[in-house]
Design brief:
The chain is α+β, with helices and mostly antiparallel strands and 406 residues long. 57% of the residues lie in helices and 12% in strands. The protein is built from eleven helices and nine strands. It has a five-stranded antiparallel β-sheet with strand order 1-2-9-4-7. A four-stranded antiparallel β-sheet has the order 3-8-5-6, with helices on one face. It is rod-shaped, with a radius of gyration of 36 Å. The chain starts with a helix and ends in a 6-residue tail after the last helix.
Length: 406
């Protein structure tokens, strides 16, 4: 009996031996699988003699390899197997089923001689009976009645659907696994962010006694924020997600810059209008110029430039904390239909509360502009656009118009 087919179809097999058809073999097939029931024993023995052989596999050998042509079916006499399916995007394989002795493997090949939809791998020393499709079909009836042919056509269609079901099942399992991993990772990430934010706020509260030594609290708060930002960046780098998911990317930076400029211009105008309204309505502001150029600080030109440079370096750190660490995390973690506005609101509320150590008015003023920057970041999740808008509005408000709240 020829063994060329089995060797070609299963190159990883260790041993192949001729099948001796005995009554015991016939009974095991009939008792083990409904596939062989109601078949005349003489006809079954003749088919086994013509198309069958026995394969011996060691643990780790592949009986069927995904993607190979389906040219045989197998009856497991002893041992055990696992069914593995390739994941999408070369993500390795997933175990989707186990097969024990008495089972038939690869039987869809009887209906659809397509490609194998999964890999069947031995998990222990195993023995199977292989039945070659081509040899079985040689003795089949040359023609079928219309009802019989219709049943065969229906069976083939169902086999094709089964292959598609295997594909969709694996995709669903992969999506579920990826979502669970994402939730677990974001849970750990957000726990560290919230703990760090609480420690940051406690540190700001504990700096009150230091004001005697360092009158300008901005120096101390800057140091604390830099430490918090450094810890946050380490948190981002050790995350399962790429840094681009947290806004560290040049993707779409041009439209982000364009929109940052366009949408910031009305805010600049609003700042001027609000200060003009204060000057016109409140006597305490009546003698202030509309554009003060940071004159209220009493610093020299050199001192003002130094503060301006420090502010320009400080703003990217603030945006990294607010957008990368908090807003991006919420946008990836939340599964609500309104996850984007919720992410903007919660991140802005959390970050605005960190300004309560200055004045309540400043914290309140930080909230609406924080909502604007959060919305800007949600349109193009890159830190470039929102940082530019923050710098533009901040320098205009603090150093040019010198809004009275600062």
């Amino acid at each position: 009996m020829s063994t060329a087919h089995a060797s070609k179809a299963t190159p990883a097999l260790k041993n192949e031996v001729t099948l001796t058809v005995t009554p015991d073999v016939i009974e095991r097939l009939i008792a083990g699988s409904s596939l062989f029931r109601d078949i005349d024993r003489v006809a079954l023995a003749d088919m086994l003699q013509r198309a069958g052989n026995r394969l011996l596999l060691a643990a780790g050998d592949d009986l069927i390899t995904e993607g190979d042509r389906a040219e045989a079916i197998y009856f497991v006499e002893s041992g055990a197997f696992e069914v593995r399916k390739r994941g999408g995007s070369n993500e390795g394989t997933h175990r989707i089923a186990r097969i024990e002795a008495g089972s038939v493997v690869g039987e869809v090949a009887l209906l659809d001689a397509g490609r194998r939809s999964a890999t069947v791998r031995a998990t222990a020393e195993s023995v199977v009976i292989a039945l070659r499709i081509a040899d079985m079909e040689q003795a089949a009836e040359p023609a079928h009645s219309p009802p019989t042919q219709m049943r065969l056509n229906l069976a083939k269609e169902m086999a094709q659907r089964l292959r598609g079901t295997n594909e969709s099942t694996v995709r669903h399992l992969e999506d579920s696994l990826r979502e669970m991993e994402t939730r677990a990772e974001m849970g750990r990430f957000m726990s560290r962010v919230l703990i760090g934010t609480c420690l940051y706020m406690f540190a700001l509260g504990l700096m009150e006694p230091l004001k005697v030594l360092v009158p300008d609290s901005a120096v101390i708060s800057t140091v604390i924020l830099l430490c918090f930002a450094a810890a946050l960046f380490v948190n981002i780098r050790t995350s399962m997600f790429p840094v681009s998911a947290y806004g560290f990317t040049l993707h779409n930076w041009k439209p982000a810059m364009w929109e940052a400029t366009l949408f910031s211009l009305p805010v600049l105008l609003l700042v001027v209008v609000l200060k003009w309204a204060l000057i016109q309505t409140l006597p305490s502001f009546a003698d202030q110029p509309l554009f003060d150029f940071y004159g209220y600080s009493g610093l020299s030109t050199g001192g003002t430039l130094a503060v301006l440079v420090a502010y320009s370096l400080f703003v990217p750190v603030q945006e990294m904390v607010a957008r990368s660490g908090i807003q991006s995390s919420f946008m990836m973690f939340l599964r609500s239909r309104h996850k984007v506005p919720l992410s903007i609101f919660m991140s802005t509320l959390l970050f605005s509360s960190t300004h309560l150590h200055t004045t309540l008015a400043f914290a309140v003023m930080a909230f609406p502009i924080g909502l604007f920057w959060g919305w800007l970041y949600s349109r193009h999740p890159t830190l470039i656009g929102v940082t530019f808008s923050h710098l533009l509005i901040g320098i205009w408000t603090v150093f040019i118009v010198s809004f009275p709240i600062f």
